[in-house]
Amino acid sequence: MAAFGWLSRRRRATARSVAAGEAAAEAARKTSQELEHAEAARGGDVTADAGAKAAKEDEEPDFPVHGDVHAAAFFDLDNTIMQGAALYHFGRGLYKRKFFRTRDLARFAWQQAYFRLAGAEHSGHMEDAQSSALSIVQGHRVADLMEMGEEIYDEYMAERIWPGTRALAQAHLDAGQKVWLVTAAPVETATIIARRLGLTGALGTVAESVGGVYTGRLVGEVLHGPAKAEAVRALAAAETLELSRCAAYSDSANDIPMLSLVGHPYAINPDARLRKHAREHGWRLRDYRTGRKAAKVGIPAAAGVGAVAGGAAAAAALQRRRR
Q1: Which residue out of 45, 62, 76, 154 is catalytically annotated?
Q2: Position 109 confidence tier, pLDDT thresholds 50, 70, 90
Q3: Which residue, among 100, 81, 75, has the nearest Cα to 90 in the 3D structure?
Q4: ∠122-126-128 over CA atoms, to 5°?
Q5: Which of 94, 105, 168, 271 is the most buried (most CB within 10 A)?
Q6: Residue 52 domain-assigned?
């Protein structure tokens, strides 16, 4: 039934969704390769920020499978890896740097409040945020936004990473698998977050740029819903991955197309619709928002240990900042 459901959803993927997915996959592979080359030139490996790495257990879990080069993991960002919406946090940082007006920040704040209270994304808010973001960055240099993005991550995002989900990502990395973010956030922002967490790369919304300057237009559409599934499909083909051996993690029912695409779907901090769907289809669940444990079956034991270790590391890092 899950496979049949995916087929019915796939028919609704538009040409713009496919274009957005393919553009995201191309951008993700390019930035990942650039990062690998940069690290090789420095004689080091890609590593996560201090305190972000999860502890490893003495015994490795059955999943993810170690040494499986045809498997990878795909993680949604907002409310799955990070508390709240990355675009809102990025918007706060830009507002601080006087990129836009107070009323624009108020709009971002309303969208963030809805997201946190409802625990779900709203398509109208997504389109509104897209329009606002494009108008804000139009005419600005990509390099400048990337530089500010590094600072904004430290200011607003670093302390909002869910340790439990971070531990799941680390389990895949420790197994020798590639781990990708898949998000509606701008690919530049997503790439910064992925690099800071020591992940392979990111699939994100691609804004058009000419000569290194944003035009105010998108390539395809926002990487949301069916477009995420198209991006994962395109990247899997380019990386010779077998989707039946891959895992995907998300909090939102909007990502059911992406979750249905892989052999190991996980519902993380799920909204009501996704929780219901996951239970009906036997998908694994985990909720890090309240401390309650939802359907532990199938969750790698390392995730629980990693959540505790990650939380302790985060607390220690926060304590050091306060001294």
Answers
A1: 76
A2: low
A3: 100
A4: 115
A5: 168
A6: yes
Over the stretch 112-146, which tens digit does the pLDDT of each residue have? 454 444 445 545 555 555 555 676 788 889 999 99
**Domains contained in the chain, number:** 1
What are the C-alpha distances in Å from 245 to residues 46, 66, 177? 24, 12, 11
Q: Is 183 helix (H, G, I), strand (E, B) or coil?
A: strand
pLDDT in tens, 251-290: 999 999 999 999 999 999 999 999 999 999 999 999 998 7
**Assigned domain for 314 exists:** yes
136 found inside a domain: no
What CATH number has the domain bearing residue 288? 3.40.50.1000
Q: How many CA atoms lie within 13 A of 86 on its CB side?
A: 28
Domain that holds residue 61: 2-83+161-322
DSSP states along 139-159 = TSBHHHHHHHHHHHIIIIIGG
Our answer to whether residue 287 is catalytic in this structure is no
Q: Which of 49, 62, 68, 78 is catalytic?
A: 78
Taking the whole predicted model, whether its pTM rises above 0.85 is answered as: no
Q: What is the DSSP string of 206-270?
A: -EEEETTEEEEEESSS-S-THHHHHHHHHHHHHTT--GGG-EEEES-GGGHHHHHHSSEEEEES-
Tell whether 126 is covered by a domain: no
Known catalytic residue: 76?
yes
Cβ neighbours of residue 144 under 8 Å, at least 6 residues apart? none
Per-residue pLDDT for 22 more than 50?
A: yes
Average pLDDT (225-229) is 93
